[in-house]
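Query structure, 280 tokens:
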């Protein structure tokens, strides 16, 4: 017996629906991603790459680089640390204090010479742990006066435990002294045989009695001069970003405990990177 057109159509649709259901039941279920979805509010900000030291700046009459607007990539600077020494395998703070041997002396190059106000025998090489902006433990080196070596280790132990971020900590070398200014350096360092900026007297750095900490996040400012020259965005101290030194924070308290002064308290200049045992 034949079917009427409407019944035939209904029957055909039913058969097609059963076939689709069967086909779907036999198909594999797509795998869900193993990585949970991240909302824009919790996602880490995108940080374009930046090559430090790649672009020399035109020179000012005073010999410093031309002060320029901070590039967008560096306005909230969190560049990863490039390891020059083996990081601590246990992720903990470790430090050693050693005399300056001949190998280290050669690596220091022109940062020390017999004309300096402190002898090489009065300096010490510190090898210490620090936490980078990548949140990982790293190992760095700096040269300080032997008389303050223990205090400096104590301060950086405190900063490590507080996970205060430091981008770089390495010896100052001849290459650093001869390099054209690029305005984007960020090496945390202590000893370098030089005079005080805009003066002829020896800096506290020339005695190994001063440290510049995260100099890009904590620039020097006097008149129209900003050092580092691309760090003007960090003159706004109300915008708190990682690596900034602020009055009353863990950094200023740690240095105050060992009797060191902070350049952020200076009256004639603003030098937020600078800490010194001499008060200048």
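Result returned for the query:
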């Amino acid at each position: 017996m034949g079917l009427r057109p409407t019944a035939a159509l209904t029957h055909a649709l039913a058969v097609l629906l059963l076939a689709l259901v069967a086909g779907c039941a036999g198909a594999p279920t797509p795998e869900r991603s193993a990585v949970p979805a991240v909302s824009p509010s919790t996602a880490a900000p995108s940080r374009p790459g930046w090559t430090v030291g790649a672009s020399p700046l035109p020179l000012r009459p005073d010999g410093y680089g031309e002060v320029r607007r901070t590039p967008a990539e560096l306005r909230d600077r969190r560049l990863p640390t490039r390891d020059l020494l083996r990081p601590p395998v246990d992720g903990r703070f470790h430090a050693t204090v050693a005399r300056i041997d001949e190998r280290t002396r050669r690596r220091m190059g022109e940062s020390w010479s017999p004309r300096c106000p402190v002898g090489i025998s009065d300096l010490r090489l510190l090898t210490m742990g620090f936490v980078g902006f990548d949140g990982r433990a790293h190992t760095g080196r700096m040269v300080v006066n032997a008389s303050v070596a223990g205090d400096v280790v104590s301060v950086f132990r405190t900063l490590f435990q507080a996970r205060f971020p430091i981008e770089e900590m390495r010896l100052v070398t001849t290459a650093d002294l001869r390099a054209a200014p690029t305005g984007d350096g960020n090496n945390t360092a202590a000893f370098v045989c030089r005079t005080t900026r805009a003066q002829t007297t020896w800096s506290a750095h020339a005695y190994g009695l001063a440290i510049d900490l995260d100099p890009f996040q904590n620039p020097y400012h006097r008149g129209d001069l900003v050092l580092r020259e691309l760090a003007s965005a960090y003159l706004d101290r109300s915008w708190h970003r990682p690596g900034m030194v602020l009055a009353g924070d863990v950094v200023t308290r740690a240095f105050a405990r060992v009797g060191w002064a902070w350049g952020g308290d200076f009256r004639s200049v603003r030098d937020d990177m600078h800490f010194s045992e001499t008060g200048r």
